[in-house]
Amino acid sequence: MFQTLSGRFFILTVLFVVLAEVLILVPSVARFRQDYLSASLERAQIASLALEAEDRISSDLEAELLETAEIYNVVLRRNEVRQLVLSSPIPAPIVASFDLRHPSAYDLVVDGLAALFDSSDHVIRVLGDPVRRAGLLIEITMSTRGLHEALVAYAIQVLWVSTAISALTAVLLFWAVRQALLLPMRQVVSHMQSYANAPEDARSIIAPNARLRELREAQDAMKSMQVELTGALKQKERLAQLGGAVAKISHDLRNILSSAQLFTDRIEASEDPTVARLAPKLVRSISRAIHLCETTLAYGRAEESAPQLEWLKLSRLFEDVVEAEQLASEGKITFTRTVAEDLQLRADPEQLYRVISNLCRNARQALEATPGQGQIDLSAADAQGHWWIKVQDNGPGLPERAKNNLFTAFQGGTTKGGSGLGLAISAELIRGHGGRLSLEKSDAQGSIFSIELPKANN
User: Could you tell me which residues come within 8 angstroms of residue 457 by beta carbon, excluding any fewer than 6 positions away?
Assistant: First the structure.
């Protein structure tokens, strides 16, 4: 029972109600004792009226009056004169005196609890004001046995009533909470279990319908989470399918490129000056393609291999990228390079080439889709603690949708029909170097992508 929320709620409700009743019982016991002693004083005063009606009464009648009032002696004080009205032998010494005329709340509580838990039979003196001002003071001596028995009976009765009230309250609260909270929560759990069995199925996504604001907020949050998770799972499945397709394509493409590499080896022996100048660049491009295919086949997953760091001359890498992009643009775009001829940095040359080539290709495709003369500038410098590389264009800037998911695969495409893989791969490659790829600016005057490579890891 303690392992369920409903069981714990039921038991806690009973405990708290009983605790409340106990807190109520303490002042109730004090009040009951006060009323009991006040009633004893009234009975004593009534018994003393018999003596006033008769000048003398028999000893048997006096004893009967005292026994009926459950007291031993009655003393009245009138006009500063203390008069013993009724008396009988006291079986034991008086152990305490209680003045009911001006008691404090603390004294009432302490004396009430003491009378409840002390079962010994003592003789006590009680002082109080006479009824209807029939004198200055009335004083009685009495036994505590009757008071103790009355207090015990009263406390037991209160506890029984408290138990019944707490049980009824707990049952009603349990039923109300079960209907208003527990059953809707079980429905949410049922939705969660149903969704866990088929997270790709959009039909199992929860439809918020709770009336309680807190539960409705939980359902709304769960729906948002399930929608995002379902989308992520579909994207993951798409990536897995794409990975399998890429692996197959890479396998066949590697074989084709290997054959092309054999032909370029022969082309290098040509005496034609143009062929001799372009052949080495063609060989390097084919070698890069073969290396990329082999890397894809070796790992067979979306993760990139760790970078193989080496010192490279950045101006030469810029030259390779620009020549490849100039051929693709057919001279419609101007490329500039702002980099020191002797600037060297330590990075993986193949991976860095892929990153800069991706950025230039994206810029070129954006410029080709807009009128006017396009320009792309590659710049780099050695800064304090890091190297930076920038790719800047004078294009129309990126749309807001692309900015929000710029480095997310299949969501950050910057051109119509683009998959957004280029920027996602580039960001991953730069992170592998311990660096950062970011969009520094993108507006109507153009875009600037910035690469930061730390020297600390070198």
Answer: 433, 434
Rounded Cα distance, 41 and 138, in Å: 7
d(CA 100, CA 88): 23
**Residues 40 and 66: beta-carbon distance below 8 Å:** no
Find out whether 99 and 127 touch, Cβ atoms under 8 Å. yes
Residue 101 is classified by DSSP as S
Q: Which residue has the tokens 């439809």?
A: 207
Residue 377 CA to residue 367 CA, distance in Å, equals 13
**3-state secondary structure (DSSP) of residue 275:** helix
DSSP state of 116: H
Is the pLDDT at 416 greater than 50? The verdict is: no
Cβ-Cβ contacts under 8 Å for 200 (sequence gap 6 or more): 230, 233, 234, 237
Percent of the chain whose predicted confidence (pLDDT) is above 90:
16
Report how far residue 48's alpha carbon sits from residue 67's, in angstroms, rounded to the nearest whole number: 13
Ordered by start, the domain boundaries in the chain are: 5-169, 201-303, 308-454
| pLDDT per residue as tens digits for the range 234-243 | 777 776 776 6
- CATH code for residues 308-454: 3.30.565.10
